[in-house]
Write a structure and sequence with these properties.
alpha/beta, Metallo-beta-lactamase, Chain A, 7-stranded mixed β-sheet, 6-stranded mixed β-sheet, 17 strands, about 20% strand
Length: about 375
């Protein structure tokens, strides 16, 4: 098995994309990219440049891919406006019909409609095939012992029940319309030759009943080797997810870290501290020979000290895996006006950091 980093937030645009190659397939996981948030400490011109560079990296990786996995429908994980990424590929997708929030319900349908147009398929709908959804919080026994705010959970549970009504109302997009090229991957495993690709059942995007909805984690296995891609677990925040990662014992762990930059209105201190603890537990418990810790974590300069236990356990950022310091570190070193102007001049000439487009590949 060979692993190639494609793009991570520590390079300057939001993404968590890797290419996994075995003798049986080339799987591109989450080919998306989005611009950094307004508070990210880079000039807007650089943010735009690195987003464009990320899109080039996605395109190059997609040329080699036979299969694509999309774990959820956020634009830093899929790009519906870049149709050539998907043409002719086998797609394993987050189910667009259930365990999904309202915005991604709409995005998924728009994406599948454009994909059908691209490939010449007739998109069809069907009535919902499931009624009654278990409360997912009830399947998190470790998290239940952490002294969570039950009043908040009760309020957020009402939001979940509203989504259940949407899933039960439908209509659903029929998986059978895609001539075997698209499969809804939730909780399924796919074998291609000697390679097995497993997708989890939907996991919360952060805390219990998280507003962003659900994601799928991905496990790729070949010849006794294993890669685990967490998708957006944000730490993980939830104890049961950290325990699962440790139990899998992957050789390579691609882990979304805590969203330290969201502390305040969007994340309580209690949940952030919880995510930092569980992040360290997951990294130590997994014992992977390579752990990439990135994505939500690397969107602000102070991330390394806040997640110090995970990094002291051997984790590296995606940028470091590609031979560069995280962009937040580099921005600090470019602080003087003269140095930053030289960097911006390279960006305007489209010559800055082009080596990112030919990343190293790691054999495991």
């Amino acid at each position: 098995m060979r692993i190639r980093p494609v793009w991570f937030d520590s390079l300057g645009a939001k993404s968590m994309c890797v290419l996994v190659r075995t003798p049986d397939l080339s799987l591109l996981i989450d080919p998306g990219a989005a611009i950094m948030q307004p508070g990210y400490p880079a000039p807007e011109e650089l943010k735009v440049y690195y987003l464009a560079l990320a899109q080039l990296a996605l395109g190059k990786a997609a040329e080699e891919a036979t299969h694509l996995a999309i774990t959820h429908y956020h634009y830093d994980h899929f790009r519906p406006d870049l149709p050539e990424l998907y043409r002719g590929k086998t797609l394993w997708l987050k189910d667009p019909n259930c365990w999904i929030n309202r915005s991604q319900w709409t995005r998924a349908r728009e994406f599948l409609t454009s994909l059908a147009d691209l490939e010449g398929w007739d998109l069809s709908e069907r009535p919902p095939i499931q009624e009654g959804y278990p409360d997912p919080v009830e399947s998190l026994p470790l998290a239940s012992r952490t002294g969570r705010r039950e009043d908040l959970l009760k309020r957020w549970r009402r939001r979940f029940l509203g989504l259940v009504r949407m899933w039960e109302r439908g209509p659903w997009v029929d998986e059978g319309a895609f001539q075997g090229r698209v499969a809804y991957a939730d909780g399924r495993a796919f074998r291609v030759g000697g390679t097995v690709v497993r997708f989890t059942h939907p996991l919360f995007h952060g805390v219990e009943y998280a507003g962003p909805g659900w994601v799928l984690a991905v496990v790729v296995e070949h010849s006794g080797r294993k890669l685990l891609y967490s998708s957006d677990l944000q730490g993980p925040t939830i104890e049961d997810y950290a325990a699962w990662i440790a139990e899998e014992r992957p050789d390579v762990l691609i882990l979304d870290g805590p969203a330290t930059y969201l502390l305040g209105p969007f994340q309580s201190r209690a949940n952030l501290e919880r995510a930092l603890r569980n992040c360290a537990r997951a990294v130590r418990g997994a014992g992977a020979s390579l752990t990439v810790l990135d994505h939500h974590l690397t969107r602000e300069p102070g991330f390394r000290s806040k997640a110090g236990q995970a990094f002291s356990a051997g984790a590296v950022t995606g940028a470091e895996l590609m031979g560069l310091p995280p962009l937040t570190d580099r921005l600090a070193s470019w602080g003087k006006k003269e140095k930053l102007e030289r960097v911006l001049k390279l960006a305007r000439a489209r010559q800055l950091d082009l080596a990112i487009l030919t990343p190293p590949e790691y054999k495991i």
